[in-house]
Design brief:
The chain is an alpha+beta fold. The protein has one domain (about 5-85): GMP Synthetase, Chain A, domain 3, CATH 3.30.300.90. The protein has helices at about 5-10, 50-60, 65-70, 80-85; strands spanning about 20-25, 35-45, 75-80. The chain has a three-stranded mixed sheet with strand order 1-2-3. The longest helix is centred in the middle third of the chain and has 11 residues, at about 50-60.
Length: about 100
């Protein structure tokens, strides 16, 4: 199972209303076909009443094995269903990579 598939599978435990996991490794100075840089956009009612740091901590706990191993970078965009609807269902764009010397 790919790293991306494992992340998607594990995040289902948060009962997402919306979930995308994007492998953004190609945007960084890593070997081809790497799975090291990911962007997660997730909307869940489980985030209701939680400050952003608490939402992030939930993700870190669920993905502890991946963060200890193959995942080098994880961009998190976490919303309640109401916040997601207010955004119009649009995930923020990722910035260009500034590292790697390429």
């Amino acid at each position: 199972m790919s790293v991306q598939a494992r992340i998607e599978d594990k995040l289902q435990t948060l009962d997402p209303d919306y979930l995308t996991v994007e492998n953004e490794s190609h945007m960084h100075s890593v070997p081809p076909n790497s799975e090291a840089h990911f962007k997660v956009t997730l909307s869940s009612s489980r985030f209701q009443g939680l400050m952003p740091v608490k939402r992030h901590q939930q993700i870190y706990a669920v993905l502890a094995d991946e963060l200890a191993g193959p995942v080098h970078a994880l961009a998190l965009h976490l919303y309640t269903p109401q916040e997601w609807a207010a955004r119009g269902g649009a995930s923020p764009d990722s910035p260009n990579c500034r590292g790697g010397g390429r």
